[in-house]
Amino acid sequence: MFKVLKGGRVLAPDDMGIKDVLIAGNVVGNIAESISPSDDYGSCEVIDVTGRYVVPGFIDQHVHLIGGGGETGYASRTPEVMLSHVIRAGITTVVGCLGTDGTTRHMTSLLAKARGLETEGISTYIYTGSYEVPTRTITESVRNDIILIDKVIGCGEIAISDHRSAQPSREDIEKLVAEARVGGILSGKAGVLHLHVGDGQRGLSMLFEIVKETEIPITQFTPTHINRNPRLLEEGVKFALLGGIIDITSGVSP
Fold first, then answer.
1. Rounded to an integer, what distance in angstroms lies between the CA atom of residue 53 and that of residue 116?
2. Average pLDDT per run of 10 along the chain, which is 254 residues long?
């Protein structure tokens, strides 16, 4: 099945201007000034996207696929994410995670939800774990989850600098990131440690110390919610300038 997107402004990610885009099955077949369907294409749908942007699908590396919330009681729990919520934002790849609640929400449910969304047409991955340390897993091992379960690409969302965290020590975080790293090495995956960073005064200080004083590379961490306050955002910029990757939360003003 072929589709031609006509007359959109293409960002790929560089601004290519007004172009036509040929989609062949699930891949981009051509980008050109003008593409006219021919008999060679067989069945071809032409879609007028004049006045719109055409961009690659976005990746969201932090999505509570089976819901979040619950921190003001049972009635504050949020529902599962539906496919329409994701694709409406132009997102075609998600990484699912748990959060504060690793008791009434489970890793097996998260895995099942990820598989379901992929069946519906998007790419999905998950982190193993939750806020707490020791953290929740499927096989009782972060390393084993990453190695043995195709969808698991790292560990998270582990909470630091937050009153809701398990107050993990530096040693706790070092062990978790080491487990994730080795799991990633042995399975050919990222093996990152995805960290929820709260409003606490410690901020990213623990991560800076670990990177400075151990052999763990800065790219093994992906701290999120970095824009929750100006001080943390400044630390996040410093972290990124050192080669790290940070995650900005939409809807949160620095």
1. 29
2. 92 94 89 82 86 94 93 90 93 95 95 97 97 96 98 97 96 98 98 97 97 97 95 97 94 55
List of long-range contacts for 207-216, beta carbons under 8 Å, 24+ apart: 207/173, 207/239, 207/244, 208/239, 209/170, 210/170, 210/173, 210/174, 210/177, 211/242, 211/244, 214/174, 216/174, 216/177, 216/178, 216/181
> How far is residue 19's CA from residue 186's CA, in Å, rounded to a whole number?
42
The DSSP bridge pattern shows strands 15-24 and 2-11 to be: antiparallel
Query: How far is 146 from 182, CA to CA, in rounded Å?
Result: 9
Q: What residue type is 105 in one-letter code?
A: R
pTM: 0.89
Structure tokens at 177: 């990131």
d(CA 9, CA 129): 40
Measured between alpha carbons, how far is residue 236 from residues 51, 55, 173, 212, 246 in Å? 35, 27, 18, 16, 7
Architecture of domain 2-54: Roll (2.30)
- The CATH class for the domain spanning 58-241 reads alpha beta
Name the residue ranges covered by the structural domains of the chain.
2-54, 58-241
How far from 78 is each of 65, 71, 101, 103, 130, CA to CA, in Å? 10, 10, 12, 15, 16
Residue in this structure with the two tokens 């895995």, named with its chain if needed:
111
- Residue 132, C-beta contacts closer than 8 angstroms, at least 6 positions apart: 102, 159, 165, 166
